[in-house]
Every structure is written in structure tokens, then in C-alpha cells.
Amino acid sequence: MALPKPNKESDSIVVVKGLTKHFSVGRGLFRREQARLHAVDDVSFDVARGEVFGLVGESGCGKTTTGRMLVKLTVPTSGDIFVDNEDISAISGQGMREFRQRVQMIFQDPYESLDPRMTVFDIISEPLNVNHIGNLEEREERVAYMLSRVGITPPEMFFFRFPHELSGGQRQRVAIARALVVNPEFIVADEPTSMLDVSIRTGVMKLLAELQEDFGMSYLYITHDLAVARYLCDRIAVMYLGKIVEMAGAEDIIKNPLHPYSKALISAVPLPDPAIRRDVPNIKGGVSKPINPPPRCRFYPRCPVAKNICRDSDHPELCEASPGHFVACHLVAR
Amino acid sequence: MDALLKIENFTMHYRTRAGHVKAVDDVTFSLAHGQSLGLVGESGCGKTSVAMSIMRLLPYNSEIKSGTIVLHGQDIYSMREEEFRKLRWKEVAMIFQAAMNALNPVYTVGSQITEVILEHEPEVSEREARQRVTELFSIVGIPEERMDHYPHEYSGGMKQRAVIAMALACNPSLIIADEPTTALDVIVQDKILREMEEIRRKTGMSMMYISHDVSVIAEVSDIVGVMYAGKLVEIGPADDVFKRPRHPYTYGLMNAYPSILGEKRDLATIPGEPPNLMFPPLGCRFHPRCDWATDECGQVEPRARYVGPDHSVACHNPLRAPSSGGEPIGVAKA
Amino acid sequence: MRSLAQNWAVFKESRIGLAGLAIIVCFGVFGLMWPIMIGNLWDVHIYHPVVGFDPAMMHPAPPCRGHVLGTDPIGRDVLAQLMFSTGREFLLGVLSAVISVVVGTFVGAIAAYYGGLTDSFFMRLADIIMLFPFVPLLVVVGSLVRLDMFSFAIILGFLEAFGGITIILKAQALQVNVRPYIDAAKVAGGDDLHIIRSHIIPNVLPLSFLYMMFNVTAAILSEATLSFFGVLNIDMSWGMMIHTAETAGYLFDYGRYWWLWLPSGLAITLFCAAFYMVGRGLDEVVNPRLRKR
């Protein structure tokens, strides 16, 4: 079966430049817009071919919105996204069909991301079906292959089951098979394991890592869990209220966090060892919503080490503190 | 030891259309004054059912098959409903799962807690009750002036604190916290867990934490109980259980999850999925997923036995602790 | 989402739904008896529901050997009328309900999926239709055009389709529309038509089916009311039977001439109640929250 795959030479599969998404708050038919929620604000990064790039942050930091913009589910307010050097905002019509085969997404909730009225076969073959790839026989073969690859065997036994007849882990495996069935080059994985039970979760995480290696895809892996990001990702970007505050190699960021927020995040992760009790930097309050935020550093109100410069200047730029390690903080010596 | 709570051979089933769900099976443990016990397990393992049994809040389709729950020397299921109602909240209070929804949106937070006090302690005047709410607010770290605010004006972390204040309202000797921080972000979760431990130390009450997250339990518990498929498979002092897990499931659970500590390591996967509790496997309920299972495990149900001081495990072939790190040693097939 | 057998198991537990279904089956058998009776056991000239006449007695005749439910003021057999009308009531109820639900489902799904202006247009249209009370509106329409059973069923179906049912089904479609599997279908490459057809409509359909039952009830009641006022060009129906009794003045002495209105009145009530009861039973299948453990 012919799965088109553009063969362009470039280091980065995805390049994101100044990506911004603002949502209007409290606007209605007869109401004037009251405020703007800066969900994603001037975010730039790139994902190399075959790389797993982690986007880590707490709820409401804009990581999911970023992921949705990359698969064209949400239209950016401004900024550019290039996939294979192609500006995706210009894609439509036939190009869209090709784009959908190159870029896929795995959703968070396996109980919600599968249509309850479709069989496993219909679900996994949907991307082939709507893109008119292959005939029924070829599709059957492909679906069976994908099912066996995601560890659901024997595949034919599962063709005509409905999602409610599967366990949570099996559902997420089906969702993964659906995303991979068109041989995509790039996958946005939005917390694919956070809804699964611990003993099931590990299996799915290992599967994702294994498939990535075998199929040579790139992932944007979105998660709130630094430990998961460390396990799966090559590089990690930490987001806070719509901004990337730190970006570096996974081990680098875990062992040597520079931004006060990353430090707090890492030291707040509970540890499975009762013998260790750590000190946590004193972070004030909880995450607020970035509605009409002042121009200064987004983390200023909670920052334990903030100085006058943080209050008086604009949000700091992301700068390279050491090779490959970027941080957006006024107080980190460059 | 002077036990506050003693649960002995407690077995509870749910009647459903399709049959009996053996949700809690022969669970025995006790909790001393001032101690904290963590109950860990995956969804559907029976940990919440145990909590609801202690609170006598079981749904009408539940059926207690055998066993006793003794609180303060009194068997709670031999009491009349009205008698127990007096104990509930004054002796044992609960922080429910998804606590954010436990607050009524149409009343101020302060008045809701006042209401709880007045309801359970009729001799207290309204002024005294309000006075106590002020104290509770300062204990859990909510500014006093927020008393007259409505729940929607609170952030997620603050709502959680308000719910903790409500549980503390009548000075109970035991608080059961069912997934108290699951909906919260890590930094806030960390702070609230610390605060709860602080309160426990100050007031000398007992805590029972229930969570699916091994790490959360490790942070706060003196004693750890591990549940699997309705069974308490291992219980013992936290340090001991985490350092030398004896049950293969406990071992799997602890190593199934990536950590941000130490070197990046491979994860242990537990094959298969938890059983359907309508038809639990014969013998040990974990044997179909256990790497070390023998013929005996599939036929004879293991009884809990002591493997160390206060450390018991329900396994035919408990793992032996390795002398220095690495994989534990299973008993070879006889 | 469960299989048909499981749905049936849930439905079976609701006594009210089963009772409704039993009544509908009885009506079905009763209606099917008409073609067997007429011409074989019953003389067409005497038992024809519209032009029949029994010259052997005074009319309206009370129940007797030849006419189990008596005759009407112009000498037609009441039981024959009742039996003849049953099939047509089925046709009316089911046809208008099917039209309203099929059209309503499409309109609701489209309004929910596209939102914006499309949505506003259909919702305001529904508001307007709902503001016009059905019965007076149809009285006016009925006096302008001659409405027979078939055209009446179609008009009723479309009025209901763009009225209340659109709003209900759109609300359901909106809930479906925000589900992640709709996003997943978009990412898979599905176009609008694919998503509406393959994802939104199948997930709205159970509710549509439920409302179909309630719409049968609504259609039968509307027909009875309008026939009673005599604005429909229908030669025979349960509503017409009461209309005949009323215009001939026999309803003033309703106790004495009970066979002129009681059988048809009871038939209307029972028939409507039966579909309503099936709807209630289905409600438990469709809305899991109502389900007993």
C-alpha cells in the first residue's frame, strides 16, 4: 500500500516560531470582549528527526494548546509552525490529506478518544478509510499488523469488539494503533498514560518508546509528570503560564535545573522512598490563569528568589545558559 | 499496642446485576493513635471500599460477609445507625476523592464548616463555632478573611485546604484521606501533604491515606498497606516495605514507575491486567501476573504471615531481600 | 454502548416499557384483523367504516349481536371504524415521528457541529415554530388546504422536526461534538461530512429514537384534536369518530350514548400512553443515570 512520505533532508521535523494563542474570555454575541487569556505566549522550539521532545508543565500552562496547534486542531493567534519546512497554516485541501498522514495525535483519555459506537477495526482503519488508502483487504492486513505491533493479539479476535469491551490499557493501545496506522513522521502524544493504572501504564510507556525506535518517528510528548518525561524524552521544555521557562536535555534539566520554577517542580515530585525528606523552595500560592498578564516575568508572583529587576523588566527571553540548555530567567548568570 | 482502629477479617461484596463483586476480601490491619497508614493500590483494588466501610457509608447494594471494624474499642457495625452518626465526624472524618466538589457552591466556605460543627456538637454556640473555624483556617493556612467567600472564589489548592479544615472541624481521632491530592499540581500537592503531616504531628490524631501513587504514600505514611484485587497483600512499616518489598506485586508496583532520582533505569512491567472481581482467580489472586508463581499459587490461597516485625505478607514464596541492591530473589520452584 | 441483547435486557427490566410494548402489539394485531374481517366475516355494505349502513335497525344502535360496539348516528359499525382506523393511526404516528426525528437529527447535528450562524438560524427557527401553538396553526392551515392523513403526517413531522426536537437533539449533538473522539476523527483526516455522518449522528441516534416514541404520541393527539374540530379532510379516524358523535349532538347525553365516544376515546388514550410508556422504558436504556442497579 502506498503511503506517501516526503523525503526532505533537514535536521528538524518540526520548527515552531513565536507561537501564540490567546482566547477571549467572557465574550458573547452582545458582549464586548472583556479579557484575553494568554494560553500560549511566544513559544519557540524545534523537534529533531527521531527525537522525543517533552513538554512539561502543570495544568493550564498551555502545553495541550500547543500540541493541538501542531496538529491543526486549534488555529494559532500568531506565530509559525513548520513541518518538514512547510508552513502548516497554508495547508488545505489535498495538502491537508497529506498532512494528516504525516502528523498524528494520541489523546489523553482512552475512554473518550474512541467512538463508543465503532468497532476496533473501524476505529483503527478510519485514517486509511477517510484518506482512501488501500482497499478493504489491504486495510485489514494493515490493521491486523498494527494491532499485533501494539500488543493486542490475536488481532482478528479484536476486530469486531467495541471499546467498552476493552480494558483501559487495551483502549490506549488501540488509540496508538490508530495514530500509527498511516505511518506518520510526527506524533503529538498528549499525556497518553496519565489516565492508566500504574501496572498498565509502564507497559504503554515502554510500547511508545519501542514503537518510536522501530518506526523512527518523532514525538512531542506532553505530560505533567517530570519522571515520565525523563524516562521517555530526549529533551524537555518546561512551560509555565504559556511560556517556556527552561529547555534542555532531559538528564540535564532533571539533574541541573536552572529556573526557580523547574527547581520547585523537580523537588516537589514525591519520591517512592520514605527515607528521603527534602527541602522544597517556598513557592507561594497556586497556578493562576494568565488573563491579561502584566508584561513582567510570569513566575514573579510565586518566585522565591525574585528581585527588583524581575518586577521592573519584561518577561525574560529564553537564552542559552550552557550549550543546549536554555533558560528564561533574569537571575541566571549567562 | 493501643489500637485506635482494628479491622479483622473484613470481607465485603457488592451485589450487581451480573453477580457478586468480591471487592474486599479478608482484610486485617490495625492503626494506633497518632500513626499514619497508607493504603496503596490500583483503581478497583478495594482501597476506597475499605475507607467507606470504616465510615459506614457503603451503598445499599453492599453486603458485609464477615469480619469486624472496631473503632475505639467499639464494633461499629454492631451499633445502631443513629449511634454511629454521632461518632462520624467527631471520631472519624473523611476527605473525599475529588474534594473540590465536596463544597456546596451556594454557601460560603466558613458557614459550611460552622454548619458541620453545629450539627455534630449541639452544645456549641454559633459564636464559638465560628471562632473555631477561624482557628481551623489558620491551621490549614487559609487567610481568615476568606471565610465569607464562596467556593468558586477559591483556587483548587485552597478548596482542598478548606475540605481538610472541614475534616478537622470536630477534632476527630482519625481522618481518612481518599486521594487527597490527586487533582492538584505537584507543587501544591507537595505543600498540602506536608501541611497535613504537620497537623497530624501537632494534634496527635491518626491518618489513613489512600492513594494509587506509591510515592505519595511513601512521603506521608508510617505504615504501608498494599492492596491488590480486594486483598491486602502486604503491610508493614514504610521503611521496611519500601526497602525490602516481599510481595511480588509490591515490588512490581514500586519499580513500575520512573523516578527522577538516581540514574535512569529500566522499568519493571507487570504483565496482564487486574482480574475481574466477580470471578477472581483461584489461589493467589496475583498468580496469573506473577513471575515467581508456582503450582501451589494457582490452587491455595496464601494466608498472611509475618516476615519481619509488624511486617506481614500474603504470599507463598515471599521475595527475599537482596544483600545489596538489584533484583530481589524469588524462591525457586520446589 | 452495549449490544442489542444487553439493551433489551435493560429495557426488559422496566415494567412500564414492557407494558407499553404489549399494548402496542395488541393494537397491531387489532389493526391487522381489519383486512381479514372485511369481506370475509363482515359484509362490505354493512360494515364499511365510511359508507356502511345496516338497514335492519334504528341508529345509533347500542351494542348488540351484529354490532358488538353498536353503530354510529348514520348507521356505521363502531368496531369496524375502530379497527379500520388503527392501521391509519399507526401510519400517521410512525410517519410523522420518523420524519421529525430523521430531519431533526440532521438539523441538530449540523447546527451543533458548525455552530455560529448556521446554529443561530436553526435555533431561531425552532423558537418561532415553538411560539406558534400547533393546534391553532393547523386549524388555519386545515381551513386553507384540504389535509388528508398523509399530508397531515408530513406537515406535522416537519413542524416537529424544526421545532422542539431540533433543540433537544442539538443539545445532545453538542455534547457529542466536544468529545475527544471527534478531535481524533479530525486528526485522522475526516472531513465535516464524515464526522457528522460517522460520529455525531450515530451517537445522537439513541436519543432520537427515544423522542420518536414521544412524537408518535404527539402526532396522534394532534390528529384527534384537529379531527374533533373537523378541520382535517380525513374520512375516518378515532378523532373523526368523536367528531361524528359531537356534530350529531349525542355528546350532550354522553352517559346514554357511551359507545359513540368511549371506544375511540379509550383507543386514543391507550395508544398514546403505550408509546409514551415505551419511551419511558427506552429512557432507562439511553440515560444510564436513571438505570437501577
List the defining traits of the structure above.
heterotrimer; A: 334 residues; alpha/beta; Rossmann fold; 8-stranded mixed beta sheet; 4-stranded antiparallel beta sheet; 12 strands; 31% helix; globular; disordered N terminus; B: 334 residues
**What's the overall average pLDDT of chain A, rounded?**
88
- Through-space gap between termini of chain C: 17 Å
Which fold name corresponds to the CATH topology of chain A?
Rossmann fold
**What is the overall number of helices of chain C?**
12
Largest inter-chain contact set: A-B, 40 and 45 residues
Compact description:
With 334 residues, chain B is α/β, with parallel strands linked by helices.
Task: Give a written overview of the molecule.
The complex is a heterotrimer of chains A (334), B (334) and C (293). Chain A has 334 residues and is α/β, with parallel strands linked by helices. Chain A has eleven helices and twelve strands. In chain A, the strands form two sheets. An eight-stranded mixed sheet of chain A has the order 6-7-8-3-9-10-12-11, with helices on both faces. In chain A, strands 2-1-4-5 form a four-stranded antiparallel sheet. In chain A, a hairpin with a 2-residue loop joins strand 4 (78-83) and strand 5. In chain A, helix 4 (136-149) crosses helix 6 (168-180). With 334 residues, chain B is of the alpha/beta class. Chain B has a domain at 3-91 and 172-226: P-loop containing nucleotide triphosphate hydrolases (Rossmann fold), CATH 3.40.50.300. In chain B, 28% of the residues lie in helices and 24% in strands. Chain B has helices spanning 47-54, 81-87, 109-120, 126-140, 156-168, 186-203, 214-220, 238-243, 248-255; strands at residues 3-16, 19-32, 36-40, 62-71, 74-75, 92-95, 174-178, 206-211, 223-228, 231-237, 305-308, 311-313. In chain B, strands 6-7-8-3-9-10-12-11 form an eight-stranded mixed sheet, with helices on both faces. In chain B, helix 3 (109-120) packs across helix 4 and helix 5 (156-168) packs parallel to helix 6 (186-203). The longest helix of chain B has 18 residues, at 186-203. The two termini of chain B are 38 Å apart. Chain C has one domain (8-290): MetI-like (MetI-like fold). Chain C contains twelve helices and no strands. The radius of gyration of chain C is 22 Å and the shape is elongated. The model of chain C has no long low-confidence stretch (mean pLDDT 85). Chain A binds chain B through residues 58-59, 167, 169, 197-203, 205-206, 224, 226-228, 230-231, 251, 254, 264-276, 280, 283, 285-288, and chain B through 42-43, 155-158, 185-191, 193-194, 212-216, 218-219, 221, 238-239, 242-243, 252-254, 256-261, 264, 267-271, 273-274, 289.
